Amino acid sequence: MSDGKGAEKGIVVAIDGPSGAGKSTVARQLAERLGYLYIDTGAMFRAVALTVKRSNVSLEDDDALSELCRDLEITFIRQEGAYRVLANGEDVSEAIRTPEISLLTSRISTKKVVREVLLHEQRRMGRAGNVVLEGRDIGSVVFPHAEVKFFLSASPEERGRRRFLELQGKGEKVTLEKTIAEVIARDAQDEQREHAPLCMAKDALPIDSDGIPVEEVLSRMEKIVRLKELEKRAS
Ligand code: DC
Known about the structure:
- The structure is a single chain.
- The protein is of the alpha/beta class.
- It has a single domain (about 10-235), classed as P-loop containing nucleotide triphosphate hydrolases (Rossmann fold, 3-Layer(aba) Sandwich), CATH 3.40.50.
- Helix content is about 50%, strand content about 15%.
- The protein is built from 9 helices and 8 strands.
- The strands form 2 sheets. The chain has a 5-stranded parallel β-sheet with strand order 2-6-1-7-8, sandwiched between helices. Strands 3-4-5 form a 3-stranded antiparallel β-sheet, covered by helices on one side.
- Helix 2 crosses helix 5 and helix 3 (about 60-70) runs parallel beside helix 5 (about 110-125).
- Bound molecules: 2'-deoxycytidine-5'-monophosphate.
- 2'-deoxycytidine-5'-monophosphate binds near residues 45, 46, 105 and 135.
């Protein structure tokens, strides 16, 4: 399993795609429908960023970064129906979602040492199967043999519009044009980075969520996983 093979008993579902494509909502709800474990790998990178921010570790110090990651225990729990992220036992679910941490996470996720430690951890977490992992490189790098791979996307305009409404709702002064331009710039950064860039695995099923209700996207995905479960049971 350390080579990212699919699970021996259960199913590994990989959901990748750019930010703002609606991955989190879909991945969480799909895991619930299936009764699978849900792993938000973006939250893992964010927990590392928060821990780096609180420490004196420099982003240029690979050894210290690697040690920090290895000492960090990230766990996902469900509390009153909501998913919570714990970093060394502390609930950091809100603290990892600030704009400052988003920015730092984007820089930290380009670090090879960080990706190496998290890759190992993600494979360990997914090993038992019956798991939905959400990220950027799950189907291409973390679980290249995952039984089911989805690549969820939406046009930059649609993703920019969603982000614009979200920011506006928080009372931030933004324009739609600028938000769309930022989405396009972030996509380029994610696609061009040296280590584990955002890319669609060859055998992934592309799903464009533009104008399709979440329920419909979910039903389509669930059907595909259920079929895989039957195939696996029969084999
Ligand atoms: O999905 P998210 O916005 O929570 O991700 C936070 C950051 O982490 C984002 O800059 C992309 C990066 N990331 C990554 O490089 N690889 C993953 N598997 C998941 C997230």
